[in-house]
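This section describes the prediction task in plain terms. A model, or a person checking by hand, is given the sequence of a single protein chain and must write out its three-dimensional structure as a string of tokens. No templates, partner chains or ligands are provided. The sample shown here is typical of the held-out split.
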Amino acid sequence: MDAILLVGGQGTRLRPLTARRHKSLVPVCNRPAIDYLLAWLVRSGIRRAILALGLANEDLAARYPAGRHGPLEILPIIETARLESGGAIRNAVQAAGIDDRFLVLNGDIYLELDFAAALQAHFQRRADLTLALHEVEDPSSFGVAVCGADGLVTGFVEKPPPGAAPSRLVNAGAWIFERRIVEEIPPGPVRVEETLFPSLIARRRVVLGYRFEGHWADLGTPARYLALHHDLLASENAVHPAAAIHPSADVTRSAIGERSVIGPRASIHGSVLWEHVEVGEAAELRDTVVADGARIGPAARLDRCVIGPGATIGPGAAPPPGTIVDADGQYHGPHVG
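The expected answer:
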């Protein structure tokens, strides 16, 4: 069985973290995010992954060229124009010669789904389309599925106001397609979530909502990206072997990337540091993401900040909580105390 990974987006919502790398290459516990999806595909028995690549995705294409990557065959499909999800699926199916049912994954998710069980449910209901659904605490920023007692999807509510959602089950970005419905995707750059899915439901085709309990996360924003790390690092750190942490530094529930250097008496809690990050003496970071090559000055204090690649935080600087510093940006005040 084949899987199509929709990885053509520009990662706009994740900036400045995606200023210099594809959103699927942002590190999750020091591994590219897409590696987790590819490993899940292997465990799920998928034999070929088609990467639906958009414009300016050269870094991802170079990292995963066509050919075998362990037990998985990877086939990149380069799009020459923006196609959205529907156009990307149609283009990938035609270019890869897919002639049977297949799986589609959004490229910016992390999931633990029993795919064999989902596929069995798809077979049993003879579904045209099966949508993986996951329950979240606040569905207001997602597409919410409305399901009947029989488990079939009867409608969608896109980003309902807080407290107004008909359920807490959201579209998890993993879909089992029967090949025949590809021909029903409208032409042009369209989103299947807004065209094909509602059309199938309106025509009473069998669209199954498969609810799963395993871990799931949408990595589309810095806040959600950090929240995933909080879940994965609830009681431990993820420190790259080539990172250097001074013995007097305090690091808890954090990820520290390759060749990053943590100075004496620095405190890092609930944070994610990418590669080649420098943290000065007695600096304090809490719930903060720091991209590659950034420098945090001695005695600086960062709380819930997002620091872009190559940025500099001056000695003693204390940006207001929630501050975002762009790639190569600088912040030197106000100061601590």
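For orientation: The chain is about 20% helix and 30% strand.
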